[in-house]
Amino acid sequence: MNQQSLPKQVNNGILSGPNVMPLKDLTSDNADSFAINRSLFQNSYVPPVNLSVPQVTQTIIQRQSPGIQHGYTIQGGATVNQKKWIGGNRDSSQITRNRRVNTTGKILSNTGPQSFTNTSDNNTRVDALARVRGGGYTVPLKVSQKNVIPISVITPTYYRIISAGLSAITNATSTTGLTSGFYTYLPGYSTINRIVNTTNGFGRSYNVLTIDKNTNTTSFNRFDIFGNTPTDASGNVTSMINYLSSLTSNSIVIIATFDEPSQSGGAALPQRFITAMKNVGASSTFGSYNQIPTPGFLEYRSAYILVGSPGLGVGNGLEHYKGQHILPDGDPNAFIDLRISILNGQYTQIYSNVPP
Q1: Whole-angstrom Cα distance, residue 339 to residue 178?
Q2: Which of 58, 187, 299, 329 has a CA positioned 20 to 30 A from the CA of residue 335?
Q3: Pairing of strands 263-264, 267-268
Q4: What angle (nearest 5°) sits at the alpha carbon of residue 111, between those of residues 105 and 117?
Q5: Rounded CA gap, 257 and 201, in Å?
Q6: Which of 116, 103, 93, 90 lies closest to 23 in space, CA to CA?
């Protein structure tokens, strides 16, 4: 190589020397317009000279070079036929051009370091410091989100309910891929979240899931009425009646049966139990197949799902039933796979393997 040391700092924004052209800032075009203006300055701004003009008369004309404020005075003789000097072009565009030429070329007549940029600009440092000092601050959510609707209010929650009679349990699991119970899911996704199923509490007779319409929180209770006599005041028949009666219209009630829902202690469902079910939306024909005097549609080891709400009224709930009169073990196809969505306290059926 040429054995020259490598420069460790290059600063062409400040230069010294004759006819130097320092680096321009980002607002400049960095093209030949600066060179053109410098050339115009050199051709226009000449050093002072002594002009000897023959004096024709005693009249002296004092004037400046048109449009260029260098302050030189030209003295010359005047004649009668001499035209009046107008003073040059004073259009705004010409004045702007003259000032640009003056500013660009003026640097050539200065001594010492020259620069087109502001070497004392500290805006970058101030901006960077402000960003560092303000980096840990965020606007409180109560301010930035006060007009934003919570996602839980505008996004439905999707529920999947699976009910099965005793003889249909295996068939239901192999068909749906899930054991009987309550689940949440998202349409189009394979992920299904268990609320409760047969592995952690979902069991024989009546399973009740309540959903708060405002908060979307859930609560689960199971009532096994198969082993209780209809007149047992301390049994699960009475417990379920009392539980349904304690709920308000602020709740959505999902009731799903499992194994055997049609009898209590070997007898038909008591009328007060049927009345409690109708109050949350069950149909007028809800009841046991051996009901007296009017039989209901619940067959032995059948499947039943009801989605309703306290005070909804008879037959106003979403009701699905499946199960034929097949003894002694019940219908092997008595299972229901129901999917619903709940938004702002309103439920909508999405799918069911049982025709409406």
Answers
A1: 13
A2: 187
A3: antiparallel
A4: 60
A5: 13
A6: 116
Q: Is the dihedral of CA 136, 142, 147, 151 positive or negative?
A: positive
Residue 114 is given by DSSP the state B
Nearest one of 20, 9, 7 to 115, comparing CA atoms: 20
Separation of alpha carbons 356 and 341, rounded Å? 17
C-alpha span between 295 and 12 (Å, rounded) = 101
Q: Where are the alpha helices (DSSP H) in the chain?
A: 33-44, 92-106, 123-133, 141-144, 151-154, 169-176, 236-246, 271-279
CB–CB of 98/89 below 8 Å?
no
Render pLDDT for 313-325 as a digit per residue (tens, 0 to 9).
999 999 999 999 9
* Cα 197 from Cα 211, distance rounded (Å): 17
Give CA–CA dist 241/158, Å, rounded: 27
Q: How far apart are CA 162 and CA 196, in angstroms?
A: 11
CA distance 211 to 254: 8
DSSP output for 293-321: SS--SB-TT-EEEEEE-TT--TT-SEEEE
Tokens at residue 297, please? 């549609």
Residue 51: pLDDT above 50?
no
Number of H helices, E strands in the chain: 8, 14
Question: Which tokens hold the place of 304?
Answer: 């039943």
Q: Where are the domains of the chain?
A: 9-79+87-119, 151-352
- Predicted TM-score (pTM) of this structure: 0.59
Instruction: Classify the phi-psi angles of 35: left when phi > 0, otherwise alpha if psi is within -120 to 50, otherwise beta.
Output: alpha
Nearest to 319 by CA among 351, 282, 287: 282
User: Do 155 and 344 contact (CB within 8 A), yes or no?
Assistant: no
Q: Which residue has the higher pLDDT, 198 or 110?
A: 198
